[in-house]
Amino acid sequence: DCANGLTCHPAIPRRRPYTMEELDYYACLVELDAAVGEILQALDETGYYNNTMVWFASDNGPEGGCGQDGICDGDDPNRPPSAPGTAGQLRGRKRDVYEGGHRVPGII
Q1: What is the pTM of this model?
Q2: Enclosing H/E stretch for 27
Q3: DSSP state of 56
Q4: Which residues contact 30 (CB under 8 A, 6 or more apart)?
Q5: Torsion angle (degrees, nearest 10) of CA 32, 33, 37, 39
Q6: Distance in angstroms (rounded) separating the CA atoms of residues 62 and 2
Q7: What pLDDT digit, counting tens, does each position of 51-79 carry?
């Protein structure tokens, strides 16, 4: 249905439908979320949940390049046309010298 334009539209009205690249990216995020959930559930079921530190870190920046000024083109800064993913309010992406290219997100 997504390929036919019937589903896969963003929750925000009047936004363009997701591209196939964005859908692949979001599918990977869903799989990652499910895998982390399985780990946390296993820790809970075996009695280690309250006595275990779980660290999660990502690699540096989303894939795909921006202009030399670190600003991505497009009408939506959270959905650059070059590749899915966002560095939020930070300039740049993977391999850029700007903040969005080298800060590493982490959750402890």
Answers
A1: 0.60
A2: helix 20-45
A3: E
A4: none
A5: 20
A6: 24
A7: 999 987 777 667 666 666 666 666 665 66
